[in-house]
Amino acid sequence: MKFKNMQRIVLLIGMIGILSSCSDEILNQIDTNPNAPVNVSVDLLLPQATMGAVYGVGGNFTMNQVSFIVEHTSNVSVNNVIDPFFIASSLWENSYLALNDLQAMIERAEQDGFYTYLGIGQVLTAYIFSQLTDVYGDIPMTEALKGSAIRNPKFDSQETVYNELFGLLDRAITNLERESVDNPGNLDLIFSGDKSMWIKTAYGLKARLHNRLSLRDPEGSAIAALEAIANSFSNSDEAFVFSGYQQGTAFDNPWTGIQKPQQIFGISTTILEVMEMFSGSLSADPRSDKWFSKIDGEIIGGVSGQTVADPNHVLYSAPSTANVLTDHAPQPLLMYDELKFIESEALLRLNRRSEAYDAYLAGVRAALEKEHFNEDEIAEYMALPAVDKGIADFRLEDIVGQKYISFWMFLPLEAFNDWRRTQFPEMKNERGTFLRLPYPTDELSRNSNTPTDINEVAIYNKPLWWAAQE
């Protein structure tokens, strides 16, 4: 509801500007399609399109539920049974709404030669399509966003989607590198018009997607990921993150917004066990005191699929309302520490163990730096034997485990993607762990091309194209 209100506000501002500048001739064009405002300027479209990606996709209700699936959190709401068809629809709807805004912006930017807007639009489009395909698998892409011209777009294979995404990101980089008179400035809600950061983001997304193909092409994906990382973020201060949520307003962080009235998030035993795998005890990981509430001085997790309703958090610990789920909490989309962990994994696949280990330690440090711990706290954690275990004992599970911790709590889909590739960590939900989400019921009824075999059974046993095949 908040997202739709935000959309209305941004759209209202845009429409006021349009109407105030329209001539009588334009106003009299009654045959113009009101759902295709071709004359909306790119500077009016960019803020709404950006929030569509950040708030409508990254902070979407479906992503909240993915947090339960990957056992970052446990569901302590009154109704803690996950209905996959119910949770599947929100991300699908909001993604294609945002993609339509982006398509309008891209077309106008290309027409007017506004290459900065064009490149930004292509990066955001790639981000949203990547989220969609990693949740559902095959999706409409090449025939999507055509309006009434194609009412039943075909579903492209995930392999096709990934190839399209790489091409889209390459075009975005090319456009962002071109000389252009346009600069969105503060209308760019993420980087304030800094083209270099959008270019680094595009390369970072390429690295993430290439690494996703580790089981399809171990060597090639590793080489491509490393090449992309070399052109992406260079330190912990560089990240693809939205920091514009406001304290005490309707525009708070969506994860916070869903927790405040309902109290659905508890802490899962799985995240606690992974943290203890490295630290020995939760007290040795400085993130535990910062992230989690305590019950009688203890951090208590719930087992996914077994947790009972606990709206007052008297049984299970909750995300901290002082340090995590705050109104103004930033919304991360891609962080530097993730790239260091991807670099480590890619180097490990190429059997460059020493370099891989160095990148792993750099990732651990970056994950702690983004939480603003001081040097003594960072050094103490990194000196733990299970963290700095040495090159000989270093393994893939160490990289994925530290990533799993680092992705808590706003990037559960990336943890879910890693789990579907590596099967680490072990999930504990006795009802089974989803391998994907089903297509929304509305899409099944509206689009005759929607695959009908993704039912309640298939979501548990039919892996995505890039995932581990059972």
Structure notes:
- There is one protein chain.
- This protein is mostly helical and 470 residues long.
- It has a single domain, classed as Serine Threonine Protein Phosphatase 5, Tetratricopeptide repeat (Alpha Horseshoe), CATH 1.25.40.
- Helices cover 53% and strands 3% of the residues.
- The protein contains 19 helices and four strands.
- It has a two-stranded antiparallel ribbon. A two-stranded antiparallel ribbon has the order 2-4.
- Helix 13 packs antiparallel against helix 14.
- The longest helix is centred in the first third of the chain and has 29 residues.
- The N terminus is likely disordered.
Strand-helix topology:
Elements: H1 2-21, H2 24-27, H3 42-58, H4 61-69, E1 73-75, H5 84-112, H6 115-136, H7 158-177, H8 195-212, H9 218-229, E2 240-242, H10 254-262, E3 265-267, H11 269-279, H12 286-291, E4 331-334, H13 336-349, H14 353-369, H15 375-382, H16 396-407, H17 412-422, H18 441-446, H19 458-461
Antiparallel strand pairs: 1-3, 2-4
Helix pairs in contact: 1-3, 3-5, 3-6, 4-5, 5-6, 6-7, 6-8, 7-8, 8-9, 8-13, 9-13, 11-16, 13-14, 13-16, 14-16, 16-17
Number of strands: 4
**So what's the oligomer here?**
single chain
Spatial order of strands in the largest sheet: 1-3
Q: Can you tell me the CATH topology?
A: Serine Threonine Protein Phosphatase 5, Tetratricopeptide repeat
| Parts with pLDDT < 50 across at least 5 consecutive residues | 1-36
First-residue to last-residue Cα separation: 39 Å
**Helix-strand pattern:** HHHHEHHHHHEHEHHEHHHHHHH
What would you call the shape?
globular
In CATH, the architecture is: Alpha Horseshoe
In percent, how much strand structure appears in the residues? under 5%
Mean pLDDT: 90
Largest sheet: 2 strands, antiparallel
Rg, Å, rounded: 22 Å
Relative helix content? 40-55%
Total of DSSP H or I helical runs spanning 4+ residues: 19
How many separate domains make up the residues?
1
**Given the helix and strand composition, which structural class is it?**
mainly alpha
CATH class wording: Mainly Alpha
